[in-house]
Amino acid sequence: MTWIAALPMYNVTPALAAQWHAWLGDVLQYAAPAMQECRIVEPDEALHAFWRRPDLLISQTCGYPLTHGLLNDGVHLVATPHFIAPGCEGASYSSVLVTRTDAPFDTLADCRGARAACNQEDSNSGMNVFRHAVAPLARNGAFFSEVVWTGSHLGSLRAVAENRADIAAIDCVTFAFVCDELPELAHRVRSLGMTASAPGLPLIASAKVSPIQIEALRDALDKTLVTQPERAKRLRLQGFSRLSAADYQHIDQLENEARAAGYPRLA
Fold it and tell me: CATH classification of 3-84+199-251 is 3.40.190.10, yes or no?
């Protein structure tokens, strides 16, 4: 089998995407003795279908799709990166609640009746932890006047910066990369606080990838940090954890807590 690999999640700019591509290339090179041929691709299909491909050697997904279907479909958890960014601790991360620099809000509670921006409905960082943060403040299942669906964290940041929305929850790793790569955008927003934390975006593999290959990938991931420390610094990579499916159930717990509070959807 010819394997495929992709990292679709943290490509904030083309220059950063090139760094991720080079890093993934080294992962595959170091793991090569245990592999057949593998090529790096740009997903040309919906990510939910891409993550389920039987020829997927390694990719990165969000924890919410992981717990809402991917684990049931047999994907392997390879590793969860540790990122150096405000809001990260080990393999866990939070989201930054952002508003415009000149917006009249000092707390999340001040945003009652405001416009929320959200990347997509199955995002842990953009929706699930945002919903969890808002749930104690909601009344009759509602808090915002409108929810603007943007398709990406960058889209949500721009919606807030351009006054098309008032608040968004942004993956703290994405926000750190925006501060690095797009400082002019970062300077147009400010933080109102952080959400609850959850296990970070995991690296996954098809169920057809063997345990020997999984271990080779894990060894290769660790090796990239030693062989290219300056690139690891640019990518904010510090290490990797081997989390279990049980660890990721915390994402479901956050969802259940919001539902129990009478706030089943971001509204």
Answer: yes
